[in-house]
Specification:
Structural class: mainly alpha
Radius of gyration: 16 Å
Shape: elongated
Distance between the termini: 29 Å
Mean pLDDT: 86
Largest sheet: none
Order of helices and strands: HH
Number of strands: 0
Length: 56
């Protein structure tokens, strides 16, 4: 849980800095882009699970 809070704080700080510098945010601004990132993460977890389950 500590990692989640640190990531949230770091993301907030980056968002504020990018807004101050008038740069576009470094993340997809739409739900489909965010879901794509979640899909990549879940795919990585799924691969690790498959390897651990069937190949070790």
């Amino acid at each position: 849980m500590n990692e989640v809070m640190l990531a949230l704080v770091a993301g907030f700080i980056v968002g504020v800095l990018f807004s101050i510098l008038k740069l576009p945010i470094p993340a997809p601004p739409v739900l489909s882009g965010v879901m794509g990132i979640v899909g990549v993460y879940l795919g990585g977890l799924g691969y690790a699970w498959i390897v651990a389950r069937f190949f070790s």
